[in-house]
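Quick one before lunch.
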Amino acid sequence: MKTLVIYSSKHGSSEEFAKIISEKINNCEITSVENVSEKNLCDYNHLVIGSSIYAGKFSKKFNNFIQENLKILLDKKLGVFVIGGIESQYLKTASSQLPESIINHACAVVYGGYKYDFNRMNFFEKFIVKIVSKTGKSIDALKPKNADALIASLNGEKNA
Ligand SMILES: Cc1cc2nc3c(=O)[nH]c(=O)nc-3n(C[C@H](O)[C@H](O)[C@H](O)COP(=O)(O)O)c2cc1C
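Model of the flavin mononucleotide complex:
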């Protein structure tokens, strides 16, 4: 079994979550959505896709990748992860951003938590996050354990 993890990340936390997943799976490769054209998706049995949310949306590149590769994504065992500051909205965002067929086909759509890294934010982003989070401090709220649920589902384990 060969797995490819494809992530879209602006400030690195989705990349970090993707790495956590890839390091726990045997025979697994990882790529950003920007470099995914270097990979042949047909070479893989399992695909994992994930993006962070900004202003209620996944990145344009991530959404374009899904539209352009819908057929092959629906042909593979698929796991999805979502990175975002508002856990209660991750499924709603995934359902509104992703094609219904992807949501129905995925064996898991998991929440990976989030990070606020003030060192990597621009002025506008700092301003928004200070209001939303009511703090000017960086936060690491990634949920590495949720990677296990996604991997268990990919492996066909029940109740994952
Ligand atoms: C300007 C800005 C807008 C954001 N908007 C949302 C949002 O609408 N919903 C959400 O759940 N998280 C939101 N977040 C939180 C990010 O998804 C979170 O910081 C995530 O870890 C960033 O992922 P990345 O490091 O892979 O880019 C926002 C963060 C910033 C800086």
